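hiii, so i know i said id send this last week but things got crazy w the move. better late than never?? heres the sequnce for the chain we talked about at the cafe, plus the structure i predicted for it. fair warning i was half asleep when i ran it
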Amino acid sequence: MAREAPIGFDAATDAARERARLAASLAAVAAGDRAALAEVYRRSAAKLFGVCLRILGERSEAEDVVQEVYLTVWQRAAGFDPRRASPMTWLITIARNRAIDRLRARRARPPAAPVEAAELVDDPAASALERLEDEDERRRLEHCLGTLDEEPRRAIRTAFFAGATYEELAAARGVPLGTMKSWIRRGLLKLRACLES
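okay and structure toks below
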């Protein structure tokens, strides 16, 4: 006669398997696997939405926060340590913190003005003339960047538009740090001269 598993044994085994699957998916997300992020979402979104909704009380805000949570998961999955917390506990902590941050920001907002006051509010958007001037400046900058040698141009673009440090740039190009700093310094001097002419 087959021996029956104790009551609750299957549920505990299933929970352990689910934790293991979620931990494996988070490890894959840390390695840049987008399909793994979709799997993490599928396995946890309902629970995280419930946490956010309970804290915020508004469905649309809870949905926004859940999106922020998965952006955070994508960026910080490498920080998940299965020895310190279960995957779901880690995810719920992120969701709870994001929801509380949203709640605090909501409370800090000033009360909305009546609709009648709308005509008195200045439009912060740039005027058509300002937009044309900005576009002209952008074209000028692109032209001047195009006059630089390839290495300084690439380094300046990556440093200033992608936020890379000199150390990261030097490591990526396989050159000494001093060389990278020289390329950027000379490039910026030439760029300034072009923009001022």
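btw DSSP finds eight helices and no strands in the chain. thought thatd interest u
miss u guys!!
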